[in-house]
Amino acid sequence: MEGFNFSTELSVRFAETDAQGIAHNATYLVWYEVARIAYLHRFREGYKSLQADGYEALTIESHVRYLKPVFFDDRLHVHARVVDVRGARFRYEYVLTRDDEIVADGWTAHAVVDRETLRPTRLPEWLAEAVAAAES
Amino acid sequence: MEGFNFSTELSVRFAETDAQGIAHNATYLVWYEVARIAYLHRFREGYKSLQADGYEALTIESHVRYLKPVFFDDRLHVHARVVDVRGARFRYEYVLTRDDEIVADGWTAHAVVDRETLRPTRLPEWLAEAVAAAES
Amino acid sequence: MEGFNFSTELSVRFAETDAQGIAHNATYLVWYEVARIAYLHRFREGYKSLQADGYEALTIESHVRYLKPVFFDDRLHVHARVVDVRGARFRYEYVLTRDDEIVADGWTAHAVVDRETLRPTRLPEWLAEAVAAAES
Amino acid sequence: MEGFNFSTELSVRFAETDAQGIAHNATYLVWYEVARIAYLHRFREGYKSLQADGYEALTIESHVRYLKPVFFDDRLHVHARVVDVRGARFRYEYVLTRDDEIVADGWTAHAVVDRETLRPTRLPEWLAEAVAAAES
Q1: I need a surface site. Which of A52, B71, C66, C104 has the fewest CB within 10 A?
Q2: Nearest-5° angle of CA C67, CA D52, CA D109?
Q3: Which ipTM was obtained for this model?
Q4: Distance from the B20 Cα atom to the nearest Cα atom in chain A, whole angstroms
């Protein structure tokens, strides 16, 4: 996917479908999260390292466009990239593909907080640098 | 909540929390859906009537702003209204409150489709009229 | 339901259905949990009091029998009772009804642990007594 | 795992954890299902073939023993085998491991039904034979 250096794969679980016979709309946010975790796994130990360093990343906004219905057992690629890193804030953008077809897209906004106080705090330097390198 | 004629109540389930100790971000889309179903319950038998008439409403876009963390067992009000009914399309807007505090808001866009063909079709007259009356 | 002094009500959410058109089998464990929380709500502030006192109750075993399919928007009663309170251990038994029909039953086993150490610890006296009174 | 010829791998998703900081008890039934789907994938196109042939497999009973807490991002192996194939009925048994440690086990019972009538029907011959070969 042009403009994306990272993607992860998953199959639609039966539990993720609903009585319309398609994947439930809330599930896409879970897939976006799966992609974020896989994205970060490339740097140190990923999200766990972030937590070990005393950080937590809260989701503060989410947006999904459901372009094509997605079905049980469909093999999906979740393309993800980090954009707009500014102090404590950053965003992820996503494109979801099935074979060569875009089936959904969207973005989520996040705030890095101190794990104890839950107060906003700058993205740790090692992660900001790793992300900048990954996205360049 | 000013501007909203409808709300429904729910308590945050333990299963809806995550290891950050707060309600998981995907759950809000489930709560929005719970509110849509409750909203429609006031008209005939609600969504089931829509299905019985051969319609299905697909979610084609969703947006959530997470303003305050929400915790296990919190009692929430989901305020919902229908806006922008145009042919096969309509949107819901939501405000989520805990006591007098707004903890989240958002909207979802929907397309009414024929249950068999999944082709877009106008909102049935009885529902368009019921919604117009409810929102006036 | 004979033998049960407590029940709580819920409606099957659309998100809880799957592509078989029925409620997904994992959802029943969520409903059982909803019933446990409602059950405890009658005593002090329920599970939150338990947590405030430094306890957590872990689920160590679960069993569900799915007797009749359950559908979107079905109104269900979850009958629940506590049995076999012994030291740190206790069990819940459940019967799920729709109108007068039993649609599922099951049980879960739990261990009370210290919230910090996660080591087993006796059920607090106030709760053991409240449960004994509720079940007598 | 002795006695098991099949296993599949998965990582605990953040959405699958709860405010106890561990994977939620209902999630295990989703993992068991993921394992069933992966198990069947080895035969024709798996569960989709079963559906295409006009069958559906209902879950009629489930049992889980939670032996060790499981955490976000843990890498798990779900070992699964089919036992007790009799007419329309069969069971799966599961052992869940993390590294060399057993963290959970359990079983589910299923009934094969005709997709249209939902009446019990014998497991199709091709699948019964494939399973018998896989488990021998």
Answers
A1: A52
A2: 30
A3: 0.96
A4: 8
